[in-house]
What does this fold into?
Amino acid sequence: MASEGIMPSVYTFTITLRLDDGSSLTTPKMTYMDPSGSEAVLTAGEQVVRYGEKGSFTTVACLKEQERLARELSATSPYVSAELKRYSSQLTSLVSRLPKGA
It folds into this structure.
């Protein structure tokens, strides 16, 4: 999607602590986003919203797919990083500004 080819990375994980007595404690699922590249993706998305696909580094379909994935990832974990929440919100805002039928 982005002209630089860099996309943000998202990691979903749990952490298990093993205690000396043999017991363990596992955290609920967590989702973290490394925001590297997110600005390039959002800029490309802004361009396609404003000017359409002609001359853009992305497509409407790609923008919609990125928004869907970010929204789903945000909804599937009890603990989601602020970076992913913000990115998802920004993508949703861009998609909501697309012309009807796009």
In short: Residues 47 and 56 are 7 Å apart (CA to CA). The two ends are 17 Å apart (CA to CA).
